[in-house]
TrEMBL record:
<dbReference type="InterPro" id="IPR028427">
    <property type="entry name" value="Met_Sox_Rdtase_MsrB"/>
</dbReference>
<dbReference type="GO" id="GO:0006979">
    <property type="term" value="P:response to oxidative stress"/>
</dbReference>
<keyword id="KW-0862">Zinc</keyword>
<dbReference type="InterPro" id="IPR002579">
    <property type="entry name" value="Met_Sox_Rdtase_MsrB_dom"/>
</dbReference>
<dbReference type="GO" id="GO:0033743">
    <property type="term" value="F:peptide-methionine (R)-S-oxide reductase activity"/>
</dbReference>
<keyword id="KW-0479">Metal-binding</keyword>
<feature type="domain" description="MsrB">
    <location>
        <begin position="18"/>
        <end position="142"/>
    </location>
</feature>
<keyword id="KW-0560">Oxidoreductase</keyword>
<dbReference type="InterPro" id="IPR011057">
    <property type="entry name" value="Mss4-like_sf"/>
</dbReference>
<dbReference type="GO" id="GO:0046872">
    <property type="term" value="F:metal ion binding"/>
</dbReference>
<dbReference type="GO" id="GO:0030091">
    <property type="term" value="P:protein repair"/>
</dbReference>
<dbReference type="Pfam" id="PF01641">
    <property type="entry name" value="SelR"/>
</dbReference>
<dbReference type="GO" id="GO:0005737">
    <property type="term" value="C:cytoplasm"/>
</dbReference>
<protein>
    <recommendedName>
        <fullName>peptide-methionine (R)-S-oxide reductase</fullName>
        <ecNumber>1.8.4.12</ecNumber>
    </recommendedName>
</protein>
Length: 144
């Protein structure tokens, strides 16, 4: 796994109370970003997007991924093979749903983004697939 793995439980740089998060986010955004939910596959805004640009955290606007690392994995969610910077995300073990996975969190606000999978023969330079919920992201097209 990349060097972004971190079990750091320190407070995030962008820290709001639960009430402030509920005021800031829509109910659907809150369910995914703050409660580690998952949007349904193939319905997310960025699943099939090919627009070039930067994907930012919808909760705090931190830069997370770049379109140059996005690829079609046919999993139903936007997939990336590397974060914009190894310090952009925190990777944390997730044993929910009766399986062992690696959860991806925004380092800046600790919001849930999705999961990363590795070593499954993905056609990427890193052999990784960051499977990210569209609702966790905001795409800022290049030149804007």
């Amino acid at each position: 796994m990349t060097s972004a793995r971190d079990t750091n439980t320190d407070r995030p740089a962008y820290d709001l109370t639960d009430e402030q998060w509920r005021d800031k986010l829509t109910a659907a955004e809150y369910a995914v970003l703050r409660k580690a939910g998952t949007e349904r596959p193939y319905v997310g805004e960025y699943t099939d997007t090919t627009t070039e640009g930067v994907y930012r955290c919808r909760a705090c606007d931190a830069e997370l991924f770049r379109s140059t690392t996005k690829f079609e994995s046919h999993c139903g969610w936007p997939s990336f093979y590397d974060p914009a910077d190894t310090d952009a995300v925190i990777l944390r073990e997730d044993r929910s749903m009766g399986m062992k996975r690696v959860e991806v969190l925004c380092r800046n606000c600790h919001s849930h983004l999705g999961h990363v999978f590795e070593g499954e023969g993905y056609p990427t330079p890193t052999d990784q697939r960051y499977c990210i919920n569209s609702i966790s992201l905001t795409l800022v097209p290049d030149g804007k």
